[in-house]
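Thread title: Can someone regenerate the structure for this chain?

I was given the following input by a collaborator and told the matching structure tokens would be attached. They weren't. Posting the sequence so someone can regenerate them.
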Amino acid sequence: MKQRYVKNVRKNWKEDPYPASGRSYEYVCPDCGRTMELHDLRDGDQGYWCHGCSHGHRAGQPPLAALRRGDDVA
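Best answer:
Regenerated them for you:
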């Protein structure tokens, strides 16, 4: 019984597209490419906002295009 369950879990396994850590990544706007600033939201959560094109997203749900590898990575 356990072996069949393990096979089903492996069959449906998908790799996480996000990096394990946000370290050395910078948040950029997926629309215009400018750096996004972190702000506190009214509901107590945090979000990134682009002042140039007035778009944003919650910090816990960034689109993959918003993560760019920083230049100062060793």
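The first strand starts at residue 25 and ends at 27.
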